[in-house]
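Note on ligand handling. Small-molecule inputs were canonicalized before submission; formal charges were left as drawn, and no protonation-state enumeration was performed. Where a ligand contained multiple stereocentres, the stereochemistry in the source SMILES was retained. For S-adenosylmethionine, this procedure yielded the string shown in the input block below.
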Amino acid sequence: MSSTHFGFESVEEREKARRVRGVFDSVAPRYDLMNDLMSLGLHRAWKAYTVLVSGVRPGDRVLDIAGGTGDLALAFAKKVGATGQVVHTDINEAMLRTGRDRLLDAGVVLPTLVCDAEKLPFEAGSFDVVSVAFGLRNMTHKDVALAEMNRVLKPRGKLLVLEFSKVAQPLRRAYDWYSFKVLPQLGRLVAGDSGSYRYLAESIRMHPDQRELKAMMQKSGFGHVDYHNMTGGVVALHVGIKC
Ligand SMILES: C[S@@+](CC[C@H](N)C(=O)[O-])C[C@H]1O[C@@H](n2cnc3c(N)ncnc32)[C@H](O)[C@@H]1O
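Structure output:
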């Protein structure tokens, strides 16, 4: 079996999947609170911008991959209306359950499915829009997952990848201090788990930067790819068109 990385550690591929599952099993109950605290609420603006750029319209079919606690699925459900459909998926049952309960509390009933982004159980050409927010970084074979996302999109369909990226040079020192000193402590105090938040900081550093991800998406079949930096490159939204 080949090796890959889990944060800064080199591990076997199967071990990475097991450890990523452990991270999200552990953080699921406090995930939303931690997101608000860690980003000072900014993740809401990043996601709102993603929905705006998606151009999702009433009647569209949307697939949210690594959908977790359902922020994007909920926002898309409001856009597609009664004639469209949003499918909310994740590989992790604990995250998906938390999301499904939140959606039900908001009065929204969606198909909710446990599935691996690297083996999507949908026919080719099924969706107008596919989204993946803060999920791609955790996947073992990102190229395989991106090719699957391309396969399930309709021709001219749009992929939205919202992910942590490479911050602008002037922000780097402060961002490193915040990531490696503050985040794990916050994780320990709020979620009783510093290790998962150390993994978060490390996995961001190991993730392809804006240009590398753009090239990966082009290689996976997206004829047109653009990216939009947000908050000085802390996060980037990559938009790929299947053409
Ligand atoms: C940081 S959470 C993001 C949740 C949500 N999209 C958000 O933006 O708040 C990352 C999610 O990716 C999921 N994930 C990791 N590997 C995956 C895979 N191979 N296929 C599908 N989901 C995966 C995890 O289970 C987790 O719920």
